Amino acid sequence: MMINYSCINRLRTLRDIIRYTTTIFNKSGIFFGHGSDNAYDEAVYLILHSLNLTADNLDIFLDSNITENEIRKILHLISKRVDLRIPVSYLTEESLLQGYKFYINKNAIIPRSPISEIIQNCIYPWVKDPESITSILDLCTGSGCLAILSALSFQRSIVTATDISEKALKIAEKNINYYNLQDRIKIINSNLFDDIPISQYDIIICNPPYVNTQSLNNLPEEYLHEPIIALDGGEDGMSIIKNIKKVKIFLKREGILVLEIGNEYNNFIKHFQNINPTWITTANTENSIMLLHKEQIP
């Protein structure tokens, strides 16, 4: 869908450009799944970011005039979103999760894990005293968002954030520095547990690659902009998950594992018939995140 730049003279106000962008997004068939679930919210976010405005300013500036250069910039972003199917977060290099802002680029998946909701609630009721948590391991940290949320929720904890991708860890480091948590979050380049010094943690969090091959081949174009290594879970989505059995060595006696498996519930059950985890329901997921106590791990 080619953007019609001849419409510039008819787009005068912020209200005009939001209406226009929402219409374009609705007609284009783009997929929403990286922070918003509808055309209007995505249009507002993209436009306000382009204008260096916040959502709090929206009502105030709705009828303000926009300059031609501002409109051209917005139309260019719309074109990239629609024609190239680039997720908005990659266009703005910013993602919001649980009210927190994270820097992001194409070297890491866009922050969206529902584990973030559980962390925000301090993993209650399974963790009864957040101040008792002093050590957390975040496997497959990507942008570092879950490690950062963990450090903010469990304020006495030291967090270790690991990933196989050095490029992703550079993004994580930038986000960690943004929140001034470099003294509390340690970064390690490691393929799961391979290069992590033996230590024991109160909590281990893991959002691994888990998309099965058939699903991977049918993903909307937007997801194809994300690193394949962060999505690909092999034929049945379990190729990485099957290798995290070492987790028991790294957990304290009362330690817990919080593991995300996305839509691979049936495949997980096939592989781990002897495990009976607690399935945690979030606002938008069910049977996607499990909690295991150390003694439940074979």
From TrEMBL:
<dbReference type="InterPro" id="IPR007848">
    <property type="entry name" value="Small_mtfrase_dom"/>
</dbReference>
<dbReference type="GO" id="GO:0005829">
    <property type="term" value="C:cytosol"/>
</dbReference>
<dbReference type="InterPro" id="IPR029063">
    <property type="entry name" value="SAM-dependent_MTases_sf"/>
</dbReference>
<dbReference type="GO" id="GO:0003676">
    <property type="term" value="F:nucleic acid binding"/>
</dbReference>
<dbReference type="Pfam" id="PF05175">
    <property type="entry name" value="MTS"/>
</dbReference>
<dbReference type="GO" id="GO:0036009">
    <property type="term" value="F:protein-glutamine N-methyltransferase activity"/>
</dbReference>
<dbReference type="InterPro" id="IPR002052">
    <property type="entry name" value="DNA_methylase_N6_adenine_CS"/>
</dbReference>
<dbReference type="InterPro" id="IPR004556">
    <property type="entry name" value="HemK-like"/>
</dbReference>
<dbReference type="GO" id="GO:0032259">
    <property type="term" value="P:methylation"/>
</dbReference>
<feature type="domain" description="Methyltransferase small">
    <location>
        <begin position="135"/>
        <end position="215"/>
    </location>
</feature>
<protein>
    <submittedName>
        <fullName>Putative adenine-specific DNA-methyltransferase</fullName>
        <ecNumber>2.1.1.72</ecNumber>
    </submittedName>
</protein>
<keyword id="KW-0489">Methyltransferase</keyword>
<keyword id="KW-0949">S-adenosyl-L-methionine</keyword>
<dbReference type="InterPro" id="IPR017127">
    <property type="entry name" value="Ribosome_uL3_MTase"/>
</dbReference>
<keyword id="KW-0808">Transferase</keyword>
<dbReference type="GO" id="GO:0009007">
    <property type="term" value="F:site-specific DNA-methyltransferase (adenine-specific) activity"/>
</dbReference>
